[in-house]
Amino acid sequence: MSGISADLNGIHYTLPDQPVAVVCIDGGDPAYIEHGLNAGIIPNIARFIETGFHAVTQGTVPSFTCPNNMSIVTGKPASVHGISGNFYLDRETNEAVVMTGPNLLRSESVMTAFSRQGAKVVSITAKDKLREQLGKNMDIDGGNAISFSSQYADRCTMEVNGIERVLEYVGQPLPDMYSAELSLFVLDAGIKLLEDRKPDLMYLSLTDFIQHGHAPDAPEAERFYRDLDSRFGRLEDLGAIVALTADHGMNDKSKPDGEPNVIWLQDLLDAEYGKSASKVICPITDAFVGHHGALGGFVRVYCYNGLEPDTVIDFVKNIPGIEFALSRENAANKFELPFDREGDVAVISDAGTCIGASQADHDLSALKGHRLRTHGGVSESRVPFILSKPLNDTYAKRALQSELHSYDVFDFAINGTA
Fold first, then answer.
1. Residue ranges making up the domain that contains 353
2. Has residue 231 been placed in a domain?
3. Phi/psi at 189 (nearest 5 deg)?
4. Higher model confidence: residue 284 or residue 58?
5. How far apart are alpha carbons 142 and 13 in whole angstroms?
6. pLDDT above 70 covers what percent of the chain?
7. What is the count of structural domains for the chain?
8. How far apart are CA 60 and CA 378, in angstroms?
């Protein structure tokens, strides 16, 4: 029996008698699940839906990887944990600050909380940019925690990651950054650890390379979801309660001719108000521009030299393809974001449009020959929420009485399963 308890952000968690494996399918738009069910290619997920629990729930806006992963593992919105993108603008220095380090995270994870209580926890992510935040203050030294990325699986040490010689242990080569194997390695490593070390709690976070490149009915996407599904089934076979969600959805944001459908917002603002009046920050920006060319559905505008946010809002809201143009206060309130890290204006595109800064600042060479599929807006914020076991009465009532969020998944998987 487990029965180990931990408290985090006002939620009391008590581990069930079997392991819990929470998987974040990066870019896992509900459309991929729907297509997989209709095509009959994800039998394990289909069984989870039939005999366990399934809903389409609300993720965090902006619908990017870092904010949503942090919401999932802390059980709270970005207003609590503080991570609202990959970048924000430091108002004192006027410099863009990377938000992927643990120092800016204002909470700890459920995994960390349990590692301090003596539970055996595992956190594996595809991209290393998430690893430090997911593993903030974990009890690595005490031997209760393992935390690493498949990106740097060849660099793991006992001191930093709680495990070493990972490639040899999993029996696979280091996966390429731009491949389905980067995600599959995460799951295979989790399965191996579940077989050998029987952790109490696992968090397995994937990457969205396939979803950025392929629609749900593409052969590459179908093959990827078949591969995911077989591994989800294996996790269940090994005795785990399996919980599936996503950090964000994905939409095609290309014109009929295949060119990206982009609003170059900085260029438009410069033409209207001058080049020193504003600065557009694209918080999707990371090291992996081959996925999306740093183009997403949510940007932040900072105003200077007397330019008023309301003036920008009145201008931007009339641009075709814009769904929302909100003040700092309204954006923070509407989407539960940290006010101190919000721009003067938040601009969000519709499902078929993306937003960039200046055209000259975006390298789209990696997208040649491919339609742009990306995320960040409200239109990509709905995500699947699937449990392999049914809910108990208390949590079944909660699911009916209020809208679920992806950040509820640990609570429901740990406390809510029958």
1. 262-374
2. yes
3. -65, -40
4. 58
5. 21
6. 96
7. 2
8. 9
